[in-house]
Amino acid sequence: MGMSDEHLHLHPSTRRFADEDAQSRIRRIRTDRWIGYARAEAVLAALEDLLSFPRRTRMPNLLLVGPTNNGKTMIVEMFRRAHPGTAAEGNDDGMALLPVVKVQMPSGPDEGRFFGAILDALGMPFSPRDRIAAKQDTAVRVMRAAGTRMLVIDELHNVLSGSAMQQRRLLNLLRWLGNELQIPLVGVGTAEALRAIRSDDQLVNRFQPYPLPLWSDDEEYRRLLSTLEAVLPLRKPSHLADTALAARILSASEGVLGEMIAIIIRAAVRAVDTGAEAISARVIEDTGFIRPSERRRVAV
Ligand SMILES: Nc1ncnc2c1ncn2[C@@H]1O[C@H](COP(=O)(O)OP(=O)(O)OP(=O)(O)O)[C@@H](O)[C@H]1O
Ligand SMILES: [Mg+2]
């Protein structure tokens, strides 16, 4: 019987790592991983639902809105990976299929750069000197041929970095694109993205907003802490979901998911380094974590 039988605070798939040396465990702690939580699962289900929606002239669209660093991109990236493209060789007509295309709205956006971003995502070479109409034609033709059934536009708030004229043109373009391809559009961005969509009467009716708000101390938050604790190979239980520790992490992170995860990962690394083997308020303190709002004030 090995030591690993004892680590009941860990997820069964993590237990076997608890006996590894510090270096390997720290590498594991720092490795990107998907942590599921109810709200993310609900968004993924809504996206799944959209993807299977029958084609029609007016497709419903979705707008994932939330503060920065709060897990929006992770969700759509997770979704895209769940619907990978299939290589050309596998298909009868020799055309690669790409059901979900994900792009970022360029900052300083114009139609040319936007279509450039789509062509990049499709792996289509183009020259920056190509006319907008040519890029647009190619983008639409290739998405049709690739059987694209959803277009995800991250950083949609970047629309607002253009002039009033450019904003109008881009919003018109989104409306046109959805109609032309008859596929749902998924916008992702901060509250500013919602503001941009709301400036267009026709678009606002077609985008169902999905908020991804800051976290507060509730059951879902406590569950997230327990999930995280179970996948970090520390040898002792930290009881992250206990009231005092949960409150400490929430206040340091100011309710931002990415911050919560960063705090816990830093503390877990420190817990391995120092041999403490569990995260405590003290360990978190010792990592010298700076709150996001303070960080913005730090002079450089
Ligand atoms: N489900 C998750 N599982 C694990 N880590 C996550 C998850 N969601 C978010 N994170 C962590 O939070 C960080 C920020 O997430 P993400 O990049 O998705 O935020 P965002 O809302 O897109 O922010 P921005 O508006 O600035 O683009 C990620 O780099 C990752 O470390
Ligand atoms: Mg993002």
Topology:
Elements: H1 12-15, H2 22-30, H3 38-51, E1 61-65, H4 72-82, E2 100-104, H5 111-122, H6 132-145, E3 150-154, H7 164-181, E4 185-189, H8 191-198, H9 201-206, E5 207-211, H10 219-231, H11 243-253, H12 257-274, H13 281-286, H14 292-295
Parallel strand pairs: 1-4, 1-5, 2-3, 3-4
Helix pairs in contact: 2-12, 3-4, 5-6, 11-12
Bound molecules: adenosine-5'-triphosphate and magnesium ion (MG).
What does this structure look like?
It is elongated and about 60 Å long. 49% of the residues lie in helices and 8% in strands. The chain has 300 residues and is an alpha/beta fold. Strand 3, helix 7 and strand 4 form a beta-alpha-beta unit. The longest helix is centred in the middle third of the chain and has 18 residues. The mean pLDDT is 93. Helix 2 runs antiparallel to helix 12, helix 3 crosses helix 4 and helix 11 crosses helix 12. It folds into two domains: 108 residues, no CATH class; 174 residues, 3-Layer(aba) Sandwich (Rossmann fold). Strands 2-3-4-1-5 form a five-stranded parallel sheet, with helices on both faces. Magnesium ion binds next to helix 4. Adenosine-5'-triphosphate binds next to helix 4 and helix 12. InterPro entries: P-loop_NTPase, TniB. Pfam families: TniB (PF05621). It comes from Bradyrhizobium diversitatis. This is TniB family NTP-binding protein.
